[in-house]
Amino acid sequence: MTASQRARLEASGLSVHHVPLIQTKETHIPPPVERFDWLVVTSQNAVPALQNLTRDVKVAAVGEKTKRALEAEGFTVSLMPETYTGEALFKQLLDVVSTDDVVLFARGNLANTSHMSMLPHVQDWVVYETVPVPLTPAQQQQLEIVKALLVLSPSAVEALTPYLSRFNGTWYAIGEVTERAVRQVSTLPIRVPECYTMDALIQCVGEDFS
Fold it and tell me: What region holds the Tetrapyrrole biosynthesis uroporphyrinogen III synthase domain (predicted)?
């Protein structure tokens, strides 16, 4: 969360608590192929592991933050879906990937892999692992007074699941994939922005609490 995003929430009269629920670590596994035509990236967390890859390749990014992270490393992003989900990304790739193209999918260990079957030659490459960070006893108790819980990934929802008996507010999920993860563990209200970005999520909160 940036300082400006935090300030926007505080301007709505909210006390903001930023609690990292997951950590990521690189696997240092080498890519399964040396030559490929497309690089697919569905999380900015994957980008640090791509430094040694060729830049002479077509790149598909799941959303704006991943796109910016890739471009900062010298990659040129050729494709980004209007809806920031892995499913939308792979569906759009169907229109541009030829039957002979090799696609390298750089992902985290918890990423959804069901979309890979849409394309004929996809090489799976797990470049980072996600590790949950347990809440402290004080953070667990604090959940009882939380009114708005912003979650940015299914992994964050999973990390919160052991403590949900303490929460009775409204969920704010960054997109439909995270929303589905919330609905599997909670019957509380959920808000999802039309655009799957942190800024749009904060705007939802501001509308509800201003």
Answer: 7-203
> For residue 55, what pLDDT is reported?
96
Task: Look at strands 190-191 and 77-79 and give their pairing.
Answer: unpaired
For residue 129, the cross-strand partners are 25
* 3-21+133-209 shares its CATH topology with 24-131: yes
Residue 40 is encoded by which pair of tokens? 């697919």
Fold of 24-131: Rossmann fold (3.40.50)
pLDDT along the chain (210 residues), means of 10: 86 88 94 97 96 96 95 97 92 95 95 91 96 93 95 92 96 94 97 92 89
Task: Give the contacts of 15 (CB within 8 A, at least 6 positions apart).
Answer: none
**Which pLDDT belongs to residue 210?**
76
What does each C-alpha distance from 104 to 52, 111, 118 come to in angstroms? 14, 14, 14
Q: Where are the domains of the chain?
A: 3-21+133-209, 24-131
The predicted pLDDT at position 120 comes to: 92
Write a three-state SS string for 164-204.
HHHCCCEEEECCHHHHHHHHCCCCCCEECCCCCCHHHHHHH
Report residue 176 CA to chain centroid gap: 11
Q: Whole-prediction pTM value?
A: 0.76
- Looking at the domain 3-21+133-209, which fold is it? Rossmann fold (3.40.50)
